[in-house]
What we know:
alpha+beta, Alpha-Beta Plaits, 9 helices, diguanylate cyclase activity
Amino acid sequence: MKNKSTNLAVVSNKTFEATKVVNLNHYDISSALQTTLDFNKLIQNFSSKVASMVPHSAYVYTNKEFGLEIKNGVFSRHSCSYALKVEDQTLGELKLMRSHKFDIADLELLETLLCCLIYPLKNATLYQQALRMAYTDPLTQTSNRSAFDDYIKREISLATRHSKSLSIIFLDVDHFKHINDQYGHECGDVALTSVAKWIKECLRSSDAVFRFGGEEFVVILSETDLIGAELVAERIRNNIENHTMSYNMQAVNITASLGVSELRGNETVDALVKRADGAMYKAKKNGRNQVVLAF
C-alpha cells in the first residue's frame, strides 16, 4: 500500500528560534538555501542537502500562486507531502518519494529540516510577488511593456536556437478615443479590461499577452507559424466583435484591428515588432476590425 501522508508544516517566529538551538548541525543547509531566490534552485538545493539524512529518489514542489510544478528524480510508490506555511502565508507543497516507506523517525527529522526551507521559501515568494507587480499592468492584469521586452528577447533566443517558429500579434482597440469621449474614461478602462479578458479566452496556456501601451496589446505565440498565428488573431478579433459590453445600462460595441508577423531567421526584436505594428496600422487604414499579415 502506498504510504502517503499529507502534513502541515507551520512555523512561527517562536518555534523557528527554538528550532535553531536544536539544529546547530543543520546550519549548512540554511546557508545553502540563502544563496538563491529561485524556486527551482531552492528545492533542488534542499533535496540535495537532506538526501543523506532522509533518503529519497524524487521530489515534487507545487505552488498554485505562481502556477509552479517542479519535478525531479525517479518517481516511486511511497511518498510524504507537506503543505508549507509560515504565519498566515502559504508557501506551496513539497512531496518526497522513494521505493520504501517513510517511518516515524524519517518524518520527524524531515519536519525539523523543513524549518531550514521555510524562510528561504518565504523570501523567494516575496521576491516573485514583487517581480510580478513590477511586470503586471494594474488595470488589465496582463503583463506590461517591461515584461514584454524581457519575454520577447528570451523567446526569440529560444526559437532561433531550436529552429522553432515564433509569431506575434499586435492588437489595437478601434475608435478607443471615441469610447473615452462619449462614455468617459471609466468606461474606457472597463473596455480595456474586457478586451484583455476576451484575448485570454482565445489563447493557449503557453501563449502570453501584454498591454503594450494605451489601447494596444501584443500576443506572443511560441512554436506558431504565420498561418497558425493568423487563425489565433481571427479568433481573437471574432471574440471581441461578438461581445457587447454593458456600461451604465448602455451597450458598447468594441472591435479591434490586428497585425501578425512571424520571426524571420536572425531577425531582431525591433524588426519583428515593427512588421507586426505596421500590419496592424494597415488593418486600421483598410477599415478596421480585420487581421493583416506581415509577409
